[in-house]
Amino acid sequence: MFINNNSFPSCLALEYQHDALHNHFRSVAHLPWAMLLSSGHATHPHSRYDILVAEPLATLCTTGEHTCITQGEVQTTHQDDPLALLAQTQAALLPNLPAHPTLPFLGGALGLFGYDLGRRFEQLPEHAISDISVPDMAVGIYDWALIADHQQQTLTLVSHSDIYARWHWLLAAQESYADRAAEDMPFTLTSEWQANMSAEEYQQKFDQVQAYLHAGDCYQVNLAQRFSADYQGSEWQAFERLNASNQAPFSAFLRLPQGSILSVSPERFLAVEQQQVTTRPIKGTRPRHSDPISDRAEAAALTMSEKDRAENLMIVDLMRNDIGRVAVPGSVSVPELFIIESFPAVHHLVSTVQASLPDTCSNTDLLRACFPGGSITGAPKIRSMQIIDELEPQRRNAYCGSIGYLSCCGRMDTSITIRTLIAAQGRLHCWAGGGLVADSQWESEYQETRDKVAKILPILSATPSEPSESSAMASEAQDKPQTANESAPQDGTCTVHGDNSGDESRHDAHTEPQQPA
């Protein structure tokens, strides 16, 4: 069925299948600026939409002080605020539309807002090395999208241009992929994972954080380490493995000219609908268990944990303050506090902050006021970010930034890019971190960073013809937690023993499975 009421872009209703967008994206995944926002095939209440885009009208790439805007064959470079440039470019190319009752994205901006984009909004040192070529911001302006609504079980093609030409383009891409699919090189790792710091180096950085905490510089600092390996083959195949295993509601695959982003995030950053903003920070994690009694006990323990509740409340207050900078005075509220949400591998402790935005506040204004998300920095945010830059050897790039869309109808939805990998120049990078506070212990914190990648590293280490060992490893790890000395080589070589990961801020000795977001 074709619909065009002259106010909205053309809409073409198609036959719904739950995996339709993944099947379509497989045929365009090789194209620069092809992007997929995926609900992760999950039953989570926020796992409603999948959104596929490609062939943008324009692109914006920010690296450091410079933003390159490309439209067709024309490239211009600017030093203005990148989010202001994004808003201006979108306004020049697409109309400002009212919201649609069921379609979240009617065209607009979609892409990556890397953690280091925050350097454009706050004064930070430049100690950490920038060694990944992916830009700080990489966003396309798209005039079409293929959208699956898993609640309504609808599949809709939306386009501001010739909608039938776009549909035939998608069909032709599928036919072309069928002819070349056998030629795709399977994804495989060609080296061992290597951490960017040894246990001894981590302990030294941990001690430095403790000194800052006891001196009163901050209350919590999120310290992360990076794991890297060589690879070859299809990055999209790697994402499909991660997506099937993690079932994260804010998953995404972004194909950029400089590399690919693979995200399986469970955490929503900022969502806006009808000038109402919602954020849902995660703080607190416990592992899932196959035994129902043990599983319920873990969830109950998380609910009653004073330590996790205190940390969750700290980030709730931080997000209330960030949003309050641009919200209608007195409108900030906390309708949910310390709610348990269960994922395939973990229970999470989640809270919800909401507020009303004045008509004068754009989505880019909100993003600027809150970026990057406080759940992955620490508190106070700016001082924590300064300490992070001092202690982490390399910049975070996409990790702990955000992926999402800003629709021309005023809606926005973004994730926190935890559980997120970068594939660039034959190297695959994966991060894990945790929030350090005054009573943290370095051994458990160090082991936790390795536990958090245990849902990712074994899955990608398995070949396509052999099953991942992560499930068996998860059961073993839950029954027998390991210490840093038992499982972590001092030279930084990564040996992961189990599936014990969670949110990026956990900091007690309890091991946990993982799982942007």
From TrEMBL:
State the protein's name.
Aminodeoxychorismate synthase component 1
Q: Which UniProt keywords apply?
A: Folate biosynthesis, Magnesium, Transferase
GO molecular function term, any single one: 4-amino-4-deoxychorismate synthase activity
The record's listing under InterPro entries reads: ADC_synth_comp_1, ADC_synthase, Anth_synth_I-like, Anth_synth_I_N, Chorismate_C
Reaction catalysis annotation: chorismate + L-glutamine = 4-amino-4-deoxychorismate + L-glutamate
Q: Name one GO biological process term.
A: L-tryptophan biosynthetic process
Q: Which organism is it from?
A: Plesiomonas shigelloides 302-73
**What cofactor does this one take?**
Mg(2+)
Where are the compositionally biased (Low complexity) regions? 462-476
Q: Give the Anthranilate synthase component I N-terminal domain ranges.
A: 22-157
Segments of this protein annotated with the region Disordered: 462-517
Residues annotated as signal peptide: none
Q: In which pathway does it act?
A: Cofactor biosynthesis; tetrahydrofolate biosynthesis; 4-aminobenzoate from chorismate: step 1/2
Source organism superkingdom: Bacteria
Instruction: Show where the Chorismate-utilising enzyme C-terminal domain sits.
Output: 199-452
* Self-association state and partner proteins as the record states: Monomer. Heterodimer consisting of two non-identical subunits: a glutamine amidotransferase subunit (PabA) and a aminodeoxychorismate synthase subunit (PabB).
UniProt xrefs under NCBIfam families: pabB (TIGR00553), PRK15465.1 (NF012009)
Q: What class of enzyme is it?
A: transferase
Q: Which family does it belong to?
A: Belongs to the anthranilate synthase component I family.
Composition-biased stretches (Polar residues): 480-493
The record's section on PANTHER family has: AMINOBENZOATE/ANTHRANILATE SYNTHASE, AMINODEOXYCHORISMATE SYNTHASE COMPONENT 1
- EC number(s) on file: 2.6.1.85
